[in-house]
Amino acid sequence: MNQDQIKDQLLKLEPDVEEFFVILSGKQSKRVNGLYKPDTREIIIHNKNFGDDNEMMYTAIHEFAHHVHITNSLVPVGPRAHTVEFRNILHELLGRAERLGVFRNVFDTTPEFQELTNRIREQFMRQNGRLMKEFGAVLGEAAELCRRYNARFEDYVERILGINTKDANTVIKFHAFNVNPDLGYENMKTVANIRNEKERLRAENAFLSGESPDSVKRSLSTRGNEDEDPIEKLKREKRRIERTINSLQQKLSAVEQRLAGVGEAD
């Protein structure tokens, strides 16, 4: 597969995107499989790193996700590359690629992966979820006992059990909200910390349907802000940047004063 063919495949996933360039380095790299240069809009792929085109296509989609993220964002993208927003874009692009036949998901099509996935979910994620849900019920008993004896629950869990109070309260919610243990511990935490019952159920169903944790968390964070004015969003980002600049200027001024003081002492 050459660079023009790769670009054509990427445009199938997101046709309405700023111009970009795909470059095959013709080299092998021990550090990275590919990289994206935002200044020149270049996706560089070290094509000698891969055993087949499907593996190379994953890297192409990954770097293309950076291009989509940076060029489509209404606010400046910070220096941290692999944010929740980026990963959500990447997962959406991979999903489209699988549906269009641009990328083959070996996890769903290879028997060894299917067997291992089922084993991990059943023997570890589900069992751990069930155990933690039962643990939540026991911690609930501890909270009730603390109330009966006028003792502080946080003192009990932190000093006696050696558990963070926030974590203990979250685990109690596993039982109180009847969170599905099939989600696994980490996803159960996300669901348990949603106050609204309908939203909890929606998030739970999203996890069970195969959505990634980043996708579910993003949908929760943007819920209710779907009609937000882009101008207001930009203004808010401008105010945030101005506060950052002001803070840095104050720190710079303090350092300059200290340097001046040292110079006078010499």
Care to describe what's here?
The chain is mainly alpha-helical and 266 residues long. It folds into 2 domains: 102 residues, Zincin-like (2-Layer Sandwich), CATH 3.30.2010; 102 residues, no CATH class. It has 11 helices and 3 strands, in the order αβββαααααααααα. Strands 1-3-2 form a 3-stranded mixed β-sheet. The radius of gyration is 25 Å and the shape is extended.
Question: Strands, helices and their partners?
Answer:
Blueprint: H1 3-13, E1 21-24, E2 34-37, E3 42-45, H2 53-72, H3 84-100, H4 106-109, H5 111-148, H6 153-160, H7 165-176, H8 185-192, H9 197-208, H10 213-222, H11 230-265
Parallel strand pairs: 1-3
Antiparallel strand pairs: 2-3
Question: Quick gist of this model?
Answer:
The chain is mostly helical and 266 residues long. It is 66% helix and 5% strand.
Principal-axis shape:
extended
Order of helices and strands: HEEEHHHHHHHHHH
- In the predicted model, the low-confidence regions spanning at least 5 consecutive residues are none
Query: Could you estimate the helical fraction of the residues in percent?
Result: 55-70%
Kindly report the CATH topology of the largest domain. Zincin-like
Structural domain tally: 2
> What is the β-strand count?
3
CA distance, first residue to last residue: 66 Å
Overall pLDDT score: 91
The CATH top-level class label of the largest domain: Alpha Beta
**Please, what is the CATH homologous superfamily of the largest domain?**
Metalloproteases ("zincins"), catalytic domain
Structural class: mainly alpha
C-alpha Rg, in Å?
25 Å
Content of β-strand: under 5%
Physical arrangement of strands within the biggest beta sheet: 1-3-2
